[in-house]
Structures are given as structure tokens and as C-alpha cells.
Design goal:
Blueprint lengths: L2 E5 L3 H13 L3 E5 L2 H11 L3 E4 L8 H10 L8 E5 L4 H10 L3 E4 L4 H11 L2
Parallel strand pairs: 1-2, 1-3, 3-4, 4-5
């Protein structure tokens, strides 16, 4: 199983995602915004990340770009999990280097499939 960083400014959303990941046997770490997410990623060295897009300070797209420039994270699976559901948002997320792009509300099966697809 993998160690996964969950970055979302909603405590409720984070807890739902974290509890689901724990039920699948993964370990987790959390951050409440993009700046904290970068700090936690560098300290914890997660094997995968789940990022919200709409967050105060540094949004998920900005965090994604920073993470992709960080040595060791170039190929880390990063799943965007967000309420931004326009085709242009999905296109932009994938162009920025996301491994997958899921929208809220999400189903546990969707998240499980994305994790299975990207975490070896």
C-alpha cells in the first residue's frame, strides 16, 4: 500500500478522503492549503498525492506545478480531486502534469480505480 498526501482546505473533505484511503490500507498525511502541501510533501515524501484545486493562498494547479519541479516528484502520481468540472479545467490540470482528474462529488469506486491505475 502507499503513503498518500491529501491536500484540501475543507477539513470535512480531507477526513472523508483520508478515512477511505485508510480503509484501503494506505497511510496518509494531510495539508490544508497549497503552501502547507508543498512543505508536507517534501517532509513526508508521499508515494502519491490527491490535490484539491480551489484553495486559499496557493491553489492546486500552482501546487501541482511546484511539485512537478521538485526533484523526486517528477513521476509521482498526482490526482486532482476538485469541484472544478469544466472540460477546460480538466484539460488545464492534465496539461500541468496531473496523473488523473476527478470531480466532486466523487464515488469511492472512481477514486479506487484512479489509485489502482497510478499506484503500482
Amino acid at each position: 500500500m502507499a503513503h498518500i498526501l491529501v491536500v484540501d482546505d475543507s477539513i470535512t473533505n480531507r477526513k472523508v478522503i483520508v478515512n477511505y484511503l485508510l480503509s484501503l490500507g494506505h497511510t496518509t498525511c494531510e495539508a490544508g492549503d497549497g503552501f502547507e502541501g508543498e512543505t508536507v510533501a517534501k517532509a513526508e515524501k508521499p508515494e502519491a498525492m490527491i490535490l484539491d484545486v480551489v484553495m486559499p493562498g496557493r491553489n492546486g494547479f500552482e501546487l501541482l506545478r511546484e511539485i512537478r519541479k521538485t526533484p523526486g516528484f517528477e513521476k509521482t502520481p498526482i490526482i486532482m480531486l476538485t469541484s472544478k468540472d469544466q472540460d477546460s479545467d480538466r484539460f488545464w490540470g492534465m496539461k500541468q502534469g496531473a496523473s488523473d482528474y476527478l470531480t466532486k462529488p466523487f464515488s469511492e469506486d472512481e477514486l479506487k480505480a484512479a489509485l489502482k491505475k497510478h499506484i503500482k
